[in-house]
Specification:
By secondary structure, this protein is mainly α. It is built from 4 helices and no strands. Helix 2 (about 25-45) packs antiparallel against helix 3 and helix 3 (about 50-85) packs antiparallel against helix 4. It starts with 7 loop residues before the first helix and ends with a helix.
């Protein structure tokens, strides 16, 4: 946890149960596969695998993480932003969160 990241219990207390709770196991499964890809990259470097092959696998792991990020972002917009608007409140804070997340994804 960095100084910028709230503790998990603080985040849950602030926001309640997240929209992806129903898909949590699928999300965790995707992340476990990505974790396996990264461990595979580690092995490839240990075994002195040809650099282009390592780069190809890095690209695949990066795309997999980006797919997870886009899915979470779509869910944030579909659920969190829409819920804020539906509740009669001002969804601008949730839209700003999404915009900031998009900016971080584009920079990475």
């Amino acid at each position: 946890m960095t100084a910028q990241e709230p503790a998990a219990d603080q985040t849950n207390a602030e926001h309640g149960t997240y929209w992806y709770a129903a898909d949590k196991q699928a999300l965790l499964g995707r992340l476990r596969r990505i974790e396996g890809q990264v461990r595979g990259l580690h092995r490839m470097v240990e075994q002195d695998t040809y650099c282009i092959d390592v780069l190809t696998q890095i690209s695949a792991a990066t795309r997999a993480l980006q797919a997870v990020a886009v899915g979470l972002l779509e869910g944030h917009i579909a659920h969190c932003v829409m819920e804020a608007a539906k509740d009669g409140g001002d969804p601008s804070a949730k839209v700003k969160e999404a915009s900031d997340a998009i900016a971080r994804l584009v920079r990475s």
